[in-house]
Design a protein that fits this description.
single chain, alpha/beta, 2-enoyl-CoA Hydratase, Chain A, domain 1, three-stranded mixed beta sheet, about 50% helix, globular
């Protein structure tokens, strides 16, 4: 498959995994409108490609993402309120699209994980952090709001903790992020982060890609759909899966005591 040409991202496809590196190290990978648009283009390019099993999102230069690009915000000031709304809402659309990507989204977090970077962490399926990472929602300390990020943070760690963090702009490390449930793994050094990522990707590769995509959609639907109708829909999906190619292959592999074809 071909990936989009990007100026703010480094992209690499290896064994069904697209590695996406935010590549603006001079600004601690601050989220410019160009980066938002390029991330959305990458998500669109891989959305319907069953060969892509996982997306790994990380930052270059020792930082994940320090939030929104102040230069973009300054440039929008001259254009008035509509430009600010457009800029802000574009990032919200990115978070929505990342949240609902059919692939497993893995975030590897180090250095600054602030504002928009915090939001990206909150839409990942698996989050791995270095203990020394610095998390925070600094928006109110700048006189602005975490407007597009807030709903995703609340879903991730709950309203009570989000209120505290958003209304104090408090900074905290990877160990606290683990305690809050923001991340799944907190590692003490760089090699441990690398090893944990390898372990998680190996586990993902044991799972059937279409079953993973359908399961992710089902889990996200639990937040919005009526329970009875959700269960009805899920029953139909289960029947289709059992009779489908992945279900047939998985059953045969189990009976024959071998790995299924998707297990790399």
């Amino acid at each position: 498959m071909s990936l989009p040409n990007c100026e703010t991202l480094l992209l690499e496809l290896v064994e069904g995994v697209v590695y996406i590196t935010l590549n603006r190290p001079d600004s601690r990978n601050a989220m410019s409108l160009a980066m938002v648009e390029e991330l959305r283009a990458v998500l669109a390019a891989v959305r319907h490609n069953p060969e892509v099993r996982a997306l790994v999102l990380r930052g270059a230069g020792g930082h994940f993402c320090a939030g929104g690009d102040i230069k973009d915000m300054a440039g929008a000031r001259a254009k008035g309120g509509d430009a600010y709304r457009t800029l802000n809402r574009a990032f919200g659309s990115l978070l929505e699209e990342a949240q609902y990507a059919p692939q497993v989204l893995v975030a590897v977090l180090e250095g600054a994980v602030l504002g928009g970077g915090f939001g990206l962490a909150c839409v990942s399926d698996i989050a791995i952090t270095h203990q020394g990472a610095k998390f925070g929602l600094p928006e109110t300390s700048l006189g602005i709001l975490p407007a597009q990020i807030a709903p995703f943070v609340v879903k991730r760690i709950g309203l009570t903790q989000t209120r505290r963090l958003a209304l104090t702009a408090a900074r905290f490390d990877g160990a606290e992020a683990l305690r809050l449930g923001l991340v799944h793994f907190c590692e003490n050094d760089d090699q441990a982060v690398v090893d944990r990522l390898a372990q998680c990707l190996q586990q993902i590769r044991q799972c059937a890609p279409a079953a993973n995509a359908a399961t992710k959609a089902l889990l996200l639907a639990t937040e919005t759909e009526n329970l009875s109708s959700l269960l009805d829909h899920a029953a139909g999906q289960f029947a289709e899966a059992v009779l489908g190619s992945e279900g047939s292959e998985g059953t045969m592999a189990f009976v024959q005591k071998r790995k299924p074809s998707w297990a790399l």
